[in-house]
Specification:
three-stranded antiparallel β-sheet; 13 strands; disordered N terminus; 395 residues
C-alpha cells in the first residue's frame, strides 16, 4: 500500500516477497480496500466510498474522516506486516490534532486514547488536556451516549495498561457511571443515561459497552464488570438471527429485539468478532459458532443469498436494509416506538423487500484488521479462498 503524495490504487508485490505474506488473506483484502479509501491530500481515510459507479467514489466529511482514520490506525496495531510507505506516527499526529478543531463526538477522543496506547504513540498535550477536561467534569457526562462512554472507558484502560498511570484515576468513576446509568436489568445496556432515547439501544451500544466492561474488569480485577459483559454477550447470542444476523435495534429495558434492520456487514465481520474474542477468553463456549455463523452471513449465507464483498476493490457492501428505508430513517424510528408500545418484537421480513446499501466506510475495514490481525484458529474465515487477492506492498 503506497501512501504518499502520488498514492494510487495499484498493488505491487515486493521484490523480496517470494514468500507467503505473514498477513492472512483476509487482512490483505482489507488493506487492499483501504487503498481505495485513502485521501492523499488530507492524509486520512474517507467517510464513504460509494459503490454505485460514480466517477469520484470517495466522499469526505472531515470530522468523520478523522475518527475513521483513528479507527483504522487502531486496526493497524494488530497487522503483522504493515504496508510500505504508511507513516503511522505522522498520520496519527496529523489527525489526532484535528480533534480539537473539528466538531467530533466524545467517542473520538476515546478512540484516540485506545489507538495511541496500542500503537505506543504519544498523544499531543493539547488533545490530552481536552480529554482530561471532559473526564474531570462529571457534570458533562449526562450528555454521553453509549459509544462515548464505552470508547472513553476503553481508551482510559488501554492507556493505563500501557503504563500511562495518569489515566487510571478516571477508570473507576467511568465504570461506576456505566454501571449505575447504562446497565439494564434485562442484561443489555441503555443507549443514554436518561431521556426518551435511553431504552432504544443499538447493537453498537452493546458492543462498545461490553468491550469496555471486559477491558475494565480484566485490568482492575472487577468481577462485576466481567459478569455484566458476559451477560450481554449471552443475550446477544440468544437473539442472533437464523443466518447469523446480528439485530440492529433493541429495547434495552425488556431485552427484546425491536428491529433487525439494517443488518450491517461491519457487525458481522468486525465488531461482533471483536466482542466475541473477549467472551471466548472468559469461557463463553458458544462464541466461536456465533462468530463463524455471523461472518458467513457476509460470504453469502444471508437473506439475499449474495456476497457482501466487492473482491475487485477489496471492499465490502455496508448493509442489507429495507428497500424503502435506503434514504430515510424515519420509518425505522417510528416502527421501533410502535414495537415498544405494542410489546412486540422485530422479525426478518420478506426477501423481496430487502436491498443493499452500496457503500463502504473505511472504519469497517479497520475493524477487520483489529478483529483478525492477530487471530489464529479460524482458517475457514481468515484464509477463505474469496480473500485471495494480491497482497499490498509490505515492509
Amino acid at each position: 500500500m503506497m501512501i504518499g503524495p502520488n498514492f494510487g490504487v495499484k498493488l505491487a508485490v515486493p521484490a523480496a516477497a517470494n514468500r507467503p505474506s505473514l498477513n492472512s488473506p483476509l487482512i490483505n483484502y482489507a488493506l487492499k480496500g483501504l487503498e481505495r479509501c485513502w485521501l492523499p491530500g488530507e492524509r486520512r481515510w474517507s467517510h464513504i466510498y460509494h459503490l454505485d459507479g460514480r466517477a469520484s467514489p470517495n466522499e469526505s466529511i472531515p470530522h468523520s474522516d478523522v475518527f475513521y482514520t483513528l479507527n483504522v490506525l487502531l486496526g493497524m496495531s494488530r497487522v503483522v506486516e504493515r504496508p510500505i510507505g504508511i507513516d503511522i506516527p505522522e498520520i496519527f499526529h496529523r489527525n489526532v490534532m484535528q480533534l480539537t478543531a473539528l466538531p467530533v463526538r466524545k467517542y473520538a477522543f476515546g478512540m484516540a486514547l485506545w489507538a495511541a496506547a496500542e500503537l505506543d504513540l504519544p498523544i499531543p498535550e493539547q488533545v490530552t488536556g481536552e480529554v482530561k477536561g471532559i473526564l474531570s467534569d462529571e457534570s458533562r457526562w449526562s450528555t454521553f451516549r453509549a459509544q462515548d462512554l464505552g470508547m472513553l472507558l476503553t481508551g482510559v484502560v488501554a492507556q493505563a495498561r500501557a503504563g500511562n498511570r495518569e489515566w487510571t484515576c478516571f477508570a473507576a468513576p467511568l465504570f461506576r457511571f456505566l454501571k449505575e446509568r447504562f446497565h439494564s436489568e434485562s442484561g443489555l445496556f441503555f443507549d443514554a443515561p436518561c431521556g426518551f432515547r435511553r431504552r432504544f439501544a443499538s447493537f453498537a451500544t452493546q458492543t462498545y459497552l461490553s468491550i469496555a466492561c471486559y477491558q475494565y474488569g480484566e485490568f482492575l480485577g472487577d468481577a462485576s464488570a466481567l459478569v455484566m459483559a458476559d451477560t450481554c454477550v449471552r443475550d446477544l447470542i440468544a437473539v442472533q438471527g437464523p443466518q447469523g444476523e446480528w439485530p440492529w435495534f433493541f429495547d434495552a429495558l425488556s431485552g427484546r429485539v425491536l428491529d433487525f434492520y439494517e443488518v450491517y456487514s461491519v457487525h458481522q465481520y468486525g465488531m461482533a468478532p471483536a466482542l466475541l474474542e473477549w467472551a471466548e477468553r472468559f469461557g463463553r463456549r458458544e462464541t466461536r459458532d456465533a462468530l463463524i455463523k455471523g461472518f458467513n452471513w457476509v460470504l453469502g449465507h444471508n437473506q439475499l443469498g449474495r456476497t457482501m464483498l466487492v473482491p475487485e476493490l477489496g471492499l465490502t457492501i455496508r448493509s442489507q436494509v429495507r428497500k424503502h428505508e435506503l434514504k430515510t430513517k424515519a420509518p425505522r424510528v417510528l416502527r421501533a416506538v410502535k414495537n415498544v408500545w405494542r410489546d412486540k418484537g422485530g422479525t426478518l421480513i420478506d426477501n423481496a423487500n430487502v436491498g443493499v446499501r452500496l457503500e463502504c466506510r473505511s472504519y469497517e475495514l479497520g475493524w477487520i484488521l483489529w478483529s483478525f490481525g492477530r487471530r489464529t484458529g479460524l482458517p475457514e474465515l481468515t484464509h477463505n479462498h474469496v480473500f485471495a487477492v494480491e497482497p499490498a506492498e509490505l515492509a
